[in-house]
């Protein structure tokens, strides 16, 4: 349930003394004027409340509609993507055969051997 806003409560508390004053025992010439004034004030407050409530409701509906439209567009974009996905990785080629070079030169030692002298 919705709670009435504090403005409606304030209105009731301000109008109730006027209603009590208007309900006195003797006939009052201003009674009709007071009642019509109170009715006008109540009607004005109710109109203001309804306008605010409808604006808040409209804002909530538009926000929710925007969220739904965004989710529908995102879903359609996902469905239109390429359905094949990534291609599989290619197989690795076989290792090549290591070629042995023919060595035609004899290797010389890097350092002279001092014991040969």
């Amino acid at each position: 349930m919705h709670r009435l806003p504090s403005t409606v409560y304030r209105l009731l508390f301000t109008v109730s003394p006027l209603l009590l004053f208007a309900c006195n025992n003797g006939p009052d010439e201003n009674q009709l004027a007071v009642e019509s004034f109170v009715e006008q004030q109540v009607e004005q407050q109710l109109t203001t409340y309804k306008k605010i409530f409808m604006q808040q409701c409209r804002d909530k509906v538009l926000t929710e509609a925007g969220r739904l439209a965004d989710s529908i567009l995102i879903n359609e974009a996902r469905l239109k993507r390429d359905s094949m996905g990534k291609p599989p990785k290619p197989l690795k080629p076989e290792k090549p055969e290591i070629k042995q070079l023919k060595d035609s030169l004899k290797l010389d030692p890097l350092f002279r051997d001092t014991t040969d002298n």
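The CA atoms of residues 21 and 71 lie 59 Å apart. The mean pLDDT is 81.
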